[in-house]
Amino acid sequence: MNPKERTEQLAREGGTIQIFDPHSTLTLAKVEWGDNRIKWCAIFPEHQGHVHEFEYNRVTLFNDGRDVAFYAGKKMVAYICPYEEGGLPLDDVREVLAE
User: Fold this and answer.
1) Which of 45, 87, 50, 85 is nearest to 64 (CA)?
2) How far apart are the first and last CA of the chain?
3) pLDDT for residue 1
4) 21-47 pLDDT, tens per residue?
């Protein structure tokens, strides 16, 4: 599986995205791939109206293909992984995913 396929799978099955500047972790709802640019939306209980994006120049799979890391230069700018590994309260994430 390549990084694009894995990222899309995590968005469908329950993943979190960690953004490092400023640092935040959110439950991932959708990802759109462009040329060296990712658009993404987090799951919000009220709505899903916030679309964010970032640029990257390298993307790699981590942890035997489980996670996806995005870099701008040598700096990691985002990290996508299963929600169980993302650090958010698991019961809260499961509840939102069920909705």
Assistant:
1) 85
2) 28
3) 93
4) 888 999 998 999 998 999 998 886 555
Q: Cα–Cα distance between 29 and 8 in angstroms, integer?
A: 9
pLDDT in tens, 48-71: 567 889 999 999 999 999 999 999
Domains by residue range for the chain, with CATH: 3-98 (2.30.29)
Question: Burial level of 40, CB count in 10 A (0-12/13-18/19+)?
Answer: buried
> Model-level pTM greater than 0.85?
yes
Backbone angles phi, psi at 74, to 5 degrees: -95, -5
SS3 assignment, position 72: strand
For 3, other C-beta atoms within 10 Å of its C-beta total: 19
- Beta-sheet strand order (sheet of 58-62): 51-55, 37-42, 23-34, 15-20, 75-82, 67-72, 58-62
Coarse DSSP helix, strand, coil percentages of the chain, rounded to the nearest 5 percent: 25, 50, 30
